[in-house]
């Protein structure tokens, strides 16, 4: 084998290794990415029906229902225009309240509800996740339309 052919072989082997590494990194990122959707987007069919995602908005006042053992919880998440029923099994954060901002992560159920694996409540009076604040602003004009 000539030196030129040997160099070409090393360059091609390096390119294959780089392409393999990039492919593996992109697959790992794609498997761990979780997108945010508002209730309006979920009911419009924009959310993936079988993949996990985050749902954010406000906990609708009067919608919180707890099981006798206190671990099974049902509530509605609203953006002011639409609302999505959420089920969660586990302990809720201390700051979880009706009328306050919440982000839940999980999957859609067959009946149109949302099965949450994690519930995140806002941490102070002035904070709301940027995605939730944007979704609420987007929903206000839609609510005002006749």
TrEMBL record:
Name listed for the protein in its UniProt record: Cytochrome c-type biogenesis protein CcmE
Positions in the Cytoplasmic compartment: 1-7
Keyword Heme set for record: yes
Binding site for heme: 123, 127
Family note: Belongs to the CcmE/CycJ family.
Location of the protein in the cell: Cell inner membrane; Cell membrane
Any GO MF annotation of the entry: metal ion binding
Gene source species: Comamonas terrigena
DNA-binding keyword on record: no
């Amino acid at each position: 084998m000539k030196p030129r052919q040997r160099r070409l072989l090393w360059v091609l082997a390096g390119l294959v290794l780089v392409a393999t590494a990039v492919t593996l990194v992109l697959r790992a990122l794609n498997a761990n990415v979780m997108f945010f959707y508002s209730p309006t987007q979920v009911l419009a069919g924009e959310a993936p029906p079988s993949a996990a995602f985050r749902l954010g908005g406000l906990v609708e006042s009067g919608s919180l229902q707890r099981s006798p053992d206190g671990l099974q919880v049902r509530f509605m998440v609203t953006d002011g225009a639409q609302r999505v029923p959420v089920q969660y099994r586990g302990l809720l954060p201390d700051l979880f309240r009706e009328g306050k901002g919440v982000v839940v992560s999980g999957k859609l159920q067959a009946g149109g509800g949302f099965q949450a694996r994690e519930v995140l409540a806002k941490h102070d009076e002035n904070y709301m996740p940027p995605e939730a604040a944007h979704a609420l602003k987007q929903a206000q004009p839609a609510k005002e339309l006749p």
